[in-house]
């Protein structure tokens, strides 16, 4: 059995946008699991995502107040499709991230994180996959807003796709975003 996942982070609602883009809500309804790596900012978005998701796995970020922190952990761990998953909002500087996360998240196959708004897809020395979906609402220094689609099947990630949201900031070659492949 395969499981489809939507990876989100850094939605910052309603400060950076009034709502998630319609395309993201369509994805929420289509996937098996929604994963949100923190910086929601408002409880309303969390409640709406929880209501519309088949399954929601989430953590709080540095911009999330007491209401959100009461609803979710700072770090989440779960098993899915034979893979050990973990999620946290912040992982520190990009230099040395893979080695630091290997030490912090032993026995983890996939680590999802946020905070930087910069899409990230690398593999640590241990083989752990590190994924940051960017932000669907606040592109910061990136060419556009993003999220990730992931498919897990029998102990493997069979597909990881960085999705660039349409908007006024388009990239000529959407296969390359901040050093990440949109394979």
Automatic annotation (TrEMBL):
Catalytic class of the enzyme: hydrolase
Q: Calcineurin-like phosphoesterase domain: which residues?
A: 5-153
Looking up InterPro entries in the UniProt record yields: Calcineurin-like_PHP_lpxH (IPR024654), Metallo-depent_PP-like (IPR029052), Phosphodiesterase_MJ0936/Vps29 (IPR000979)
Membrane-traversing stretches: none
EC numbers: 3.1.4.-
Protein's UniProt keywords contain Metal-binding: yes
Q: Which domain of life is it from?
A: Bacteria
Q: Does the keyword Metal-binding apply?
A: yes
**Cofactor dependence:** a divalent metal cation
Which keywords does this chain's UniProt record carry?
Answer: Metal-binding
User: What family is it from?
Assistant: Belongs to the metallophosphoesterase superfamily. YfcE family.
Q: Which PANTHER family match?
A: VACUOLAR SORTING PROTEIN VPS29
Q: What is this protein called?
A: Phosphoesterase
What is the organism field in this record? Kocuria salsicia
């Amino acid at each position: 059995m395969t499981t489809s996942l939507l990876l989100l982070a850094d939605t910052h609602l309603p400060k950076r946008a009034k709502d998630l883009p319609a395309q993201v809500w369509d994805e929420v309804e289509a996937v098996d699991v929604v994963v949100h790596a923190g910086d929601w900012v408002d409880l309303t978005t969390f409640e709406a995502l929880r209501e519309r998701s088949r399954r929601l796995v989430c953590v709080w970020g540095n911009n999330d107040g007491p209401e959100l922190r009461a609803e979710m952990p700072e770090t989440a761990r779960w098993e899915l499709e034979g893979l050990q998953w973990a999620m946290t909002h912040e992982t520190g500087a990009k230099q040395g991230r893979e080695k630091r996360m290997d030490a912090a998240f032993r026995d983890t196959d996939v680590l999802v994180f946020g905070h930087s708004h910069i899409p990230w897809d690398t593999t640590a020395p241990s083989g752990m996959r590190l994924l940051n979906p960017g932000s669907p609402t606040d592109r910061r220094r990136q060419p556009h807003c993003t999220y990730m689609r992931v498919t897990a099947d029998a102990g493997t990630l069979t597909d990881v796709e960085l999705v660039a949201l349409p908007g006024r900031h388009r990239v000529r070659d959407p296969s390359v975003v901040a050093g990440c492949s949109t394979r």
